[in-house]
Write a structure and sequence with these properties.
Helix 6 links the parallel strand 21 and strand 22 (316-320). 21% of the residues lie in helices and 31% in strands. By secondary structure, the protein is α+β, with helices and mostly antiparallel strands. The protein has 15 helices and 49 strands. The chain has 3 domains: 35-268, 3-Layer(aba) Sandwich (Rossmann fold), CATH 3.40.50; 282-357 and 407-569, 7-stranded beta/alpha barrel, CATH 3.20.110; 575-730, no CATH class. The two termini are 35 Å apart.
């Protein structure tokens, strides 16, 4: 093998350091001096402050984490009131991000010294609101000013304190229209002033204020630099202290991209697979045994079975509450049989939704009283927002027994009594959707995924990206996957009406892809998720609302997956590794089912001849989506030239084991109604034979002839359901 001259010095150096040459060569490729790309943001908060209470309820998690996820980062949290961070793998941390509401902190001096050590080691720092550490509340001492001044100086600014909140003396001097007033203007809302000054030419200033009553009163309150970024006070985010409908004043996508220095770099993406937006739908078990308002002989569960699950050629993840089915509790044989019919549908996977539907996981409040387990109480005022049920009960079992019954016993009951052949794959959290870490760990030990919480909504009632949830909820060392959209409870005022309110969910699907309410660029930030409860089968208008939503889905260019598969995509996003190669490429590993990387504002193309593990690509708006194969070891190079090698440009279903050449294509796939697979750069005008065979059924083999277009495009379409193997050969 002959190596390019630019690679040889790196090879020699690494060999001298003791690295065997064989470790640098994989399948004919040289991984020249790979450099790991850190994908973790360390989020710092102080739980002693309002709006910063827990690692799953703080200003970063509730507002900024979604944006950071979109840029390819995952966020881990540390509460500064508990001491300094101890991070096991600090090399994976790209930046430290603090959002502190004041300048007081216990152990403040130690924290500033720790910050400086991280900055000296090359970690970026992003600070929102206040540095948070001028005064040590544990010792009642001020931190030496030379320490805090060095933090500011390394960020590229000087703090020349001149605070005032007198609105008559504060004015906006200059603002960058591409960075500021993203969702809300500064007009009519005077904010506090303090004086900050950019120190270097490499510091970008996006918002300048002027204090009119002092000389040289110019202040730079939104800045980025090679060291990170700084936003003073509430100039970055408007906080609605009444109902927390916050709005961004800064453009958070651009700000974080600049502060982190990741413009033009690839991001693992959880919204898109093989060129299409991900769609999944899941149903919580609530209301399965409700009698419908239009037929007193029918349960809501039967209506959903007959009118939705049996009629729409889409995948559904359906969960049950064990107590609502079990004849020994609140169920009966008819309900059990209806559940079995649902479980037997080929387009249904099963989820679990608790034994008694806990409402408050931490305090062990639940929906169903159960003799010897949960005793009825009368505190509905404290739980009304979590459930439609008229009663609440307190679970008397100890924590381990309680979690076992609500999670493990529920899964085993459904597997044994409802669906022995197709076991539960997902736990769908109930009530407040804030299970303890031990509960999340239990789902992992059972080998199933978990989902719910988040309550995303982006429409005229909630006009902000702050209402779009991040991918996950962190709790201890465990991860809970958030649902991608709110369910019908939010759209129907807690199931008090209007009962057709869920039809409004399609506006969120639109705004999270091509927003019009804030008038900014197209940006696909979440999948399409249709999430509701069985009680939506209770009213004729609520059933019609579901049909309206699913009709909308069938008109969209989506790729349908089960909810557990979406959760696996999120897990792949979290585990995925990324390295830069010394010869200008990108190496992706450990990405699981997160098989898409995205380049925003990209102009080039994948170099398919030089890359490996790349199935194809497509463009949507200003983004380039690149498809990775399932081997979890992909190497990508970009080029300015359009590719001439054949590739997959679009697939309407998941694909695996795909091999592509100009003369032959083979892959495995699964469909719920039909399949569409589009290939480019095949032999222009050539005739191909496509052979389809259902998995495990040789008698199902079917073939048809296809002709590639003059530009080499080959469209493969077929109506089918289930798993199939496909082979395409030029004849």
């Amino acid at each position: 093998m002959t190596y390019p001259k630019c690679v040889l010095p790196n090879l020699v150096l690494l060999c001298l350091l003791g690295m065997p040459l064989s470790a640098l060569i994989t399948a004919g490729h040289v991984h020249a001096a790979e450099i790991a790309v850190p994908r973790v943001i360390l989020g710092l908060f102080d739980s002693g402050e309002e709006y910063n209470r827990r690692q799953d309820d703080n200003l970063i998690h509730n507002n900024a984490e979604m944006v950071l996820n979109h840029l390819g980062f995952r966020v881990i949290y540390h509460d500064l009131s508990k001491g300094l961070p101890v991070i096991e793998h600090l090399e994976e941390v790209a930046a430290i991000f603090s959002w502190l509401r004041d300048d007081e902190l216990p152990g403040a001096e130690a924290y500033v010294r720790w910050l400086l050590a991280q900055m000296r080691a090359g970690k970026k720092l992003i600070v929102f609101d206040h540095l948070g550490a001028h005064h040590d509340t544990a010792t009642d001492k001020w931190v030496p000013s030379q320490l805090t001044e060095e933090v500011y100086r390394r960020l590229g600014i000087a703090n020349e304190s001149a605070w005032t909140d007198n609105p008559l003396e504060i004015e906006v001097l200059e603002k960058d229209p591409q960075m500021t007033e993203f969702e809300r203007t500064f007009e009519g809302e005077p904010l506090a002033y303090d004086k900050f000054r950019a120190l270097r030419a490499d510091v970008k200033v996006y918002l300048k204020l002027r204090r009119k009553d002092i000389p040289e009163g110019e202040s730079h309150v939104i800045v980025t630099s090679p060291a990170g970024g700084w936003i003073y006070g509430e100039y970055g985010l408007f906080i609605d202290y009444y109902d927390m409908r916050n709005q961004w004043r800064v453009n958070p996508f651009r700000f974080f991209e600049e502060a982190l220095g990741v413009r033009g770099e690839p991001r693992y993406d959880t919204t898109t697979l093989f060129g299409r937006r991900i769609f999944y739908s899941h149903i919580d078990g609530d209301g399965f045994r409700n009698i419908t308002k239009f037929d007193d002989q029918k349960y809501s569960g039967e209506v959903i079975l007959d009118e939705i699950l049996s009629k729409y050629p889409l995948p559904f993840t359906v969960s049950f509450i064990a107590a609502e089915l079990d004849p020994a509790a609140y169920g009966n044989e008819k309900l059990m049989e209806t559940a079995r019919k649902i479980a037997g549908l080929p387009n249904v996977e099963l989820g679990a939704h608790g034994w008694t539907h806990p409402l408050d996981w931490e305090n062990q409040l639940t929906a169903f009283p159960l003799k010897g387990y949960a005793k009825k109480i009368y505190r509905k005022s404290e739980t009304a927002h979590e459930s439609i049920y008229p009663d609440a009960a307190v679970i008397k079992a100890d924590r381990a027994q309680y979690l076992k019954k609500e999670i493990e016993d529920t899964v085993r009951f459904i597997n044994r009594e409802i669906s022995p052949a197709r076991p539960v794959t997902l736990n769908q959290w109930t009530g407040d959707c804030r299970p303890p870490a031990e509960g999340i760990a239990l789902t992992r030990e059972l080998g199933i995924e978990n989902i719910n919480g988040g309550d995303s909504r982006f429409d005229r009632a909630y006009q902000s990206y702050t209402n779009v949830a991040p991918l996950t909820r962190p709790y201890g060392d465990e991860i809970q996957v958030y649902a991608s959209n709110s369910n019908e409870n939010l759209y129907t005022n807690g199931w008090r009406g209007p009962f057709d309110g869920f039809r409004q969910v399609v506006h969120t699907f639109d705004q999270t892809e091509k927003p019009t309410l804030i008038g900014r660029r197209a940006r696909r930030v979440s999948p399409v998720n249709v999430y509701y409860h069985f009680y939506s089968g209770e009213h004729e208008v609520s059933v019609r609302a579901l049909k309206t939503v699913y009709a909308d889905i069938l008109r969209r260019n989506v790729i349908p997956v089960y909810a557990s598969e979406y959760a696996q995509v999120v897990r792949g996003f979290l585990s995925g590794k990324m390295e830069r190669t010394g010869d200008g490429g990108w190496h992706f590993t450990a990405y699981g089912r997160a098989r898409t990387v995205r380049f925003d504002e990209a102009e080039g193309f994948p170099d398919l001849e030089r890359s490996r593990g790349i199935l194809g690509f497509s463009r949507w708006e200003q983004s380039l989506y690149v498809y990775l194969d399932e081997q979890e070891d992909a190497l990508l190079y970009l080029t300015a030239a359009k590719p001439t090698a054949p590739y997959l440009s679009e697939a309407s279903n998941l694909v695996q084991e795909m091999k592509i050449s100009r003369s032959e294509i083979s892959f495995k796939t699964r469909a719920f109604a039909s399949g569409l697979y589009r290939f480019q750069n095949m032999e222009p005008g050539a005739v191909y034979e496509a052979v389809w065979q259902a998995d495990g059924d040789e008698s199902s083999e079917h073939s048809e002839k296809l002709t590639a277009a003059a530009d080499g495009a080959l469209l493969v379409e077929k109506q089918f359901r289930g798993n199939a193997s496909v082979s395409i050969r030029r004849i």
